[in-house]
Amino acid sequence: MDPFFTLLHSFSLSLQEQELESLKFLCRPQIGKRKLELVQSGLGLFNLLMEQQLIGRDRLDFLEGLLRSIKREDLVSQLKQFVEDGEVNAPGDQPDVHERPIEIICESVGKEWKMLVRKLGLSEVKMDRIIAAYPLNLREQLFQSLREWQKWKGKDAKVSDLIKALRGCHMNLVADKIEE
Questions:
Q1: For the chain, give me the number of helices (H) and strands (E)?
Q2: How far is it, in rounded angstroms, from Cα 108 to Cα 101?
Q3: What residues does each domain of the chain span?
Q4: Which residues belong to any copy of the DED domain (predicted)?
Q5: 3-86 and 98-179: same fold?
Q6: Rg of the chain's alpha carbons, rounded to an integer?
Q7: Could you read off the pLDDT of 10-69 as tens digits, one per residue?
Q8: Which of 103, 125, 146, 173 has its CA 20 to 30 A from that of 166?
Q9: Can you give the pTM of this predicted structure?
Q10: What CATH number is given for 98-179 in this structure?
Q11: What is the C-alpha to C-alpha distance for residues 162 and 157, in angstroms, rounded to an integer?
Q12: Predicted confidence (pLDDT) at residue 93 exceeds the cutoff of 50
């Protein structure tokens, strides 16, 4: 899943009907009234804005201005977090992983995965984006979270950190499996 589209989807889900109407009104100078009348959701509006090249993964100023105009500072901070996390220019390829430990963790950790990922220091915004991208797949949520942690840490992503976080969450059996 593309992190930028996941972010826009998350924004769309959190918009109230009145906020969407306000956003449509604010976009009238850029997008014709007839096109805006057909928009029924935030996603529809974001698609039009992308078609007009007003927003994109490297063009976020217009979107930030819109969100500020409707007083959605929570979404503005998510947008800024997205930029700070380097998602704007993130390459599409996945970093090398310590495949075996991640595989063991994904097989062994269930619904308590968020506790582990928080222990590793991954932000709530990133977790929310991953959950939105894979809403019905717990294992994939955990896998993508571990990948995200690894991408964030880069060369500093160590198996010992995974083991320490697992032990901190009282998941000693999983930590033991990794150490073997």
A1: 12, 0
A2: 10
A3: 3-86, 98-179
A4: 3-81
A5: yes
A6: 19
A7: 899 989 999 999 999 999 998 888 999 999 999 999 999 988 889 988 889 999 999 999
A8: 125
A9: 0.50
A10: 1.10.533.10
A11: 8
A12: no
Of 96, 74, 94, 91, whose CA–CA distance to 7 is shortest?
Answer: 74
Identity at 86, one-letter amino acid code: G
Q: Tell me how far apart the alpha carbons of residues 155 and 3 are, in angstroms, rounded to a whole number.
A: 22
Angle at 4 between CA 81 and CA 152, to 5 degrees: 50
* Residue 64 CB contacts under 8 Å (≥ 6 apart), including other chains: 76, 79, 80
Superfamily of domain 3-86 in the CATH hierarchy: Death Domain, Fas (1.10.533.10)
* Token couple for 48: 């039009």
Please give the structure tokens belonging to residue 101: 């430990």
Both tokens of 178, joined, read 């990794």
User: Which amino acid, 18?
Assistant: Q
Closest CA to 59 of 30, 28, 17, 93: 30
Nearest to 72, CA basis, from 127, 34, 141, 22: 22
- Locate 115 and state its tokens: 């506790």
